[in-house]
């Protein structure tokens, strides 16, 4: 039984930090409103000329260093993003070239805030099927470029950043004691398009467009779908909520994160929270949170880690990983 085992992880955040107070000088909002409704205190914003591929490259170099591997060891890059450098080619190919990796395949997956779990699932399937042996899975975004900075209902919620993990195909026993990805679960429901989308694109408006969201509706779907998908992924692995060591959720809103943790019966200190510092970085939020908890020593080898996320589409999913 092939398992996709995490060899290392890395993260990168743009240097510029924008606090809630700074935002309140530009739009009609306040630090108190943002903190109470979302838990967000600040976000990082990419500099002029700093693209999604640049953030992804830095996170990837750190993940490779953590894994003690070289770009030439890789034969797959899956990059999850909804904010590619260009309409085509895939931003993953920019990262491939900048890393100096010349073999294998590099492509993007687009599942917005669920992008990282989609990317993990795609890479895991390819490693299991022998299509690749060592993969870089990246979540990288520059959401600041698709925000309507006059819409206080959305512009306060998002930030830029990137995170990456290196997965390597190893032989396991096929039991849940194995290290690596134990199970994945993915879903989407295209009927919910209108509650979270970007009102532009190459085929429709020939513009990039801006993010549009009905926050309350997204909130309701997030609570219900997250509870269902975490149960599904645990069932697939034959494990129970009591087996979980760490919940590393998509970082959109502290209230959604707390709700999922409570439903699983986890104590708050088993839930990794970075939304206060990073805001919602879409596909980057899970690997950024993973890197935070791995590098500070919370997540240890052998721990059971549950990743989950939901975003535009709607698209959602979960991955269960033994670290
Ligand atoms: N600052 C101050 N007031 C704001 C505001 C802001 N940044 N944004 C909205 N408001 C106002 C609204 O205009 C509204 O005012 P009104 O009552 O006078 O009309 C009031 O606050 C309540 O707005 P509402 O949208 O109902 O707030 P909410 O409690 O639903 O919180 C979100 C808004 C966006 C924080 C919340 O719905 C949410 O987090 N949803 C999930 C979003 C999400 O996770 N998206 C990403 C998924 S990947």
Strand content is 25-35%
Oligomer: single chain
Number of distinct beta strands: 13
Bound molecules: coenzyme A
CATH superfamily of the largest domain: Thiolase/Chalcone synthase
Strand order of the largest sheet: 1-7-6-4-5
The structural domain count equals 2
Name the helix and strand elements from N-terminus to C-terminus, one letter apiece.
EEHHEHEHEHEHEEEEHEHHHEE
Tell me the distance between the termini: 17 Å
Q: Examine the coordinates and then state which fold CATH places here, giving the name of the CATH topology of the largest domain.
A: Peroxisomal Thiolase, Chain A, domain 1
Query: Which residues form runs of ≥5 with pLDDT under 50?
Result: none
The total count of helices amounts to 10
CATH architecture of the largest domain: 3-Layer(aba) Sandwich
Structural class: alpha/beta
CATH class of the largest domain: Alpha Beta
The percent range for helix content is 25-40%
The rough form would be described as globular
Can you give the mean pLDDT? Answer: 97
Query: Radius of gyration from the CA trace?
Result: 18 Å
Largest sheet: 5 strands, mixed
């Amino acid at each position: 039984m092939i398992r996709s085992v995490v060899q290392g992880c890395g993260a990168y955040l743009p240097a510029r930090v924008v606090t809630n107070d700074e935002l309140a000088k530009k739009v009609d909002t306040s630090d108190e409103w943002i903190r109470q409704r979302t838990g967000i205190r600040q976000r990082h914003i990419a500099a002029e000329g700093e693209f999604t591929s640049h953030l992804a490259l830095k996170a990837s170099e750190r993940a490779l260093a953590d894994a003690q591997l070289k770009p030439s060891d890789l034969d797959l890059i899956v990059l999850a993003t909804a904010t590619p450098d260009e309409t085509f080619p895939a931003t993953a190919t920019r990262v491939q070239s900048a890393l100096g990796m010349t073999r294998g395949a590099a492509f993007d997956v687009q599942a917005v805030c669920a992008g990282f779990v989609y990317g993990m699932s795609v890479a895991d399937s390819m490693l299991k099927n022998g299509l690749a042996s060592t993969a870089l899975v990246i979540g990288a975004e520059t959401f600041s470029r698709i925000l309507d900075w006059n819409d206080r209902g959305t512009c306060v919620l998002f930030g830029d950043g990137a995170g990456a993990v290196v997965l390597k195909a190893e032989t396991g026993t096929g039991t849940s004691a194995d290290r690596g990805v134990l199970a994945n679960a993915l879903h989407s429901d295209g009927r919910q398009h209108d509650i979270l989308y970007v009102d532009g694109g190459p085929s429709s408006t020939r513009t990039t467009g801006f993010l549009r969201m009905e926050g309350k509706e997204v909130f309701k779907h997030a609570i219900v779908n997250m509870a269902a998908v975490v149960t599904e992924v645990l069932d697939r692995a034959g494990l129970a909520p009591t087996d979980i060591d760490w919940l590393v959720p998509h970082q959109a809103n502290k209230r959604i994160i707390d709700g999922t943790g409570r439903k699983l019966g986890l104590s708050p200190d088993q839930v990794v929270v970075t939304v206060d510092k990073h805001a919602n970085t879409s596909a980057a939020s899970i690997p950024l949170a993973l890197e935070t908890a791995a590098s500070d020593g919370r997540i240890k080898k052998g721990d059971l880690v549950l990743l989950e996320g939901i975003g535009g589409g709607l698209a959602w999913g979960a991955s269960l990983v033994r670290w």
